[in-house]
Design goal:
By secondary structure, this protein is an alpha+beta fold. Helices cover 18% and strands 19% of the residues. The strands form two sheets. A two-stranded antiparallel sheet has the order 1-2. The structure holds zinc ion (2 copies).
Length: 83
């Protein structure tokens, strides 16, 4: 969560807080503009949603990103499919 102090111009100040967007990569801790798209039916959003950065993501398809945990699961599935 990021909080900013905003001058209202009348001598009073307001603190505005925004959540999200400041997520950190689960793998390296850098800023994470991407979210894992792995399907997780138990979650309300339906996807894993772990924050990941561009250098730690695994992209199985254009516009899709996987966190390191799910990237390894995805690889296992690929291998079993070919086997
Ligand atoms: Zn990272
Ligand atoms: Zn994930």
């Amino acid at each position: 969560m990021t909080c900013t102090v905003v001058e209202t111009g009348t001598g009073t100040r307001a603190i505005v807080c925004t959540s999200g967007r400041a997520a950190r990569c689960v793998s390296c801790g850098k800023r994470a503009p991407l979210l894992c798209d792995w399907k997780v039916p138990s979650r309300r959003s339906g996807t894993c949603d772990k924050p990941i950065c561009a250098s730690c993501t695994h992209s199985p398809a254009p516009g899709k990103d996987l966190c390191p945990d799910h990237a390894s699961q995805w690889r296992q599935r690929q291998e079993s499919r070919h086997g």
